[in-house]
Amino acid sequence: MRRKSLKLGAMLLLASASLYAQNKVTLQTAHEPVTISKHIYGHFAEHLGRCIYGGFYVGEANDSIAHTQGVRNDVVQALKKLQIPNLRWPGGCFADTYHWKDGIGDKAGRPSIVNSWWGGVTEDNSFGTHDFLNMCELLGTEPYLSGNVGSGEVQELADWVQYVNFDGKSPMSDLRVENGREQPWKVSYWGVGNEAWGCGGNMTAEYYADIYKKYATFMSDWGNKDGLYRIASGANSADYNWTETLMKKIPHSLMKGVALHHYAVIDWDKKGPSTTFSEEQYFKTMKSGWFMEELIQKHTAIMDKYDPQAKIDLVVDEWGGWYEVEPGTNPGFLYQQNTMRDAMLAGMTLNIFNNHAKRVKMANLAQAINVLQSVILTRGDQMILTPTYHVMEMYKVHQDAQQIPLALSSDSFKYGSESIPALSASASKDAHGKVHLSLVNVDPHKSKKVSVALGEIHISTVQGRILKTENLRDYNTFESPQTITPKAYKGAKLSGGEIEIDIPAFSVIVLELT
Ligand code: AHR
Q: Which entry of 318, 326, 479, 498 is annotated as an active-site residue?
């Protein structure tokens, strides 16, 4: 009898060991220190739909929505909580149509601009350079200005840099002072065009590389001690030739970052709805999101060839899920809802960036408010936080923390004959010695038992938060804004050098180990 129960005990042990063994995270010792740049948690604000007008900015004269110099107070408060490290503006495709001089000076006298890329609406240029840069100060975030290369001139961009950055006497700094701003803003991050292969001018990589050199040369750093952080317009997803050409042809002294754009899209002609998606559409979105891993590996390999010391950064300055617009809304405004699918996508993608933090130094989610995978949605004076907001908020613990490399073995999430890993994870140690581990289970049906081997990390407590809901298609609405919010997670058990976790289907967990 005793032998029998021993045998049964051993079998159970083996069975549970194999359950945990299949899904295993092993925290490793870092061979070189890598900081997870806070700029991986960057955002993007384009003149597109209701992102700027109605989203960030409601105008100085508005008396129904609380604002500071026209910028919504509720939005500022919410974004400050995320500690957004940078904000890219004014586009996007819009940037290559934007003439910054039309957006300065007396607002009543500003010329209008027709937003030819996004809905053909006429804008009054009331939100311009001063409005954006002052708003960044309000948000405590670093501005990232995207320069007009497509329809602009070298002198125009050179002037913009002088206008916002020069603290001596010059035509542009005098104009800035005349417009009410004595001190320059000292903007570091500058994009030299956007999607030069597409809406930015339909250029070849070779042609753009030549143009880039000309623009970058005349964008003086005006004595900024750290110089300008110039970012070359990068590849469309898997266009590896684009990255190779830029790395080969542009002198490295002229560029600090090479961009990459990748959206999680099912099919550009049939993007599918943002809320009532099928399981197949869910799988395809996750698969397209997971492709970011391969993209970063391959673009990095090319960059390594030309820049083995990793002095040039990979800047994923547009990423996110892209679906059909909400029924009844302007197709040119790209307004979509945000479900747990987006939370999965955000958690998985941020894990990928954290794990590639040696080369990826900045990323910008598209877009901050009311456009594509937003963290905030507004309706009149109402504002709601999306599931993606909550993931960003849970993950902010990784900003500027030391990366902890990890090995992960995971079950697959299968659909038909295709599969991707069900789990993704990343870990870091912050300045106070706290270790954070973020985990995502994208499987829509099955929870996962995971064992985490702590290696050389010695801890005595584990606590955490979880983002989960009843239904994958759930989302926060203006009527029910708290449907999805993070909750305390108590399912992690620490024993010896391991933690055992049960991760529910389609959930995100961030653990704090102390
Ligand atoms: O984010 C929406 C658009 O997507 C941007 O304007 C453009 O750069 C990209 O194609």
A: 318
